[in-house]
Sequence to fold (119 residues):
Amino acid sequence: QVQLTESGGGLVQAGGSLRLSCASQRIIADFEDMGWYRQAPGKQRELVATITNGGLTNYTDSVKGRYTISKDSAHNSVILRMSNLRPEDTAVYLCNAHSRVRHLLYTYWGQGTQVTVAS
Fold:
């Protein structure tokens, strides 16, 4: 099992910014990709952003232009910078990682960090 630990959540006013960090026990280069999901109360978990081992990024439409995902290899972390936050961004944000061993894909999750955007 691989431990992923999120940090950086909190309460922010609409239009504000936050920086989330996901620290991995394992060297992040071992992962096929890493990403951030979010889950708001009463809603399904949704993909927010991903970054592949090669650095390719992908974002859900609602956060494009406002969020940036990046890797901090020196600290075995993945960073999510969020700006121009909106109340609808309020959710628990969870870090996710995939690793592949031969034909098997393994998925890891962090415990999540709460982001609350006040209007």
Observations:
- Residues 4 and 103 are 23 Å apart (CA to CA).
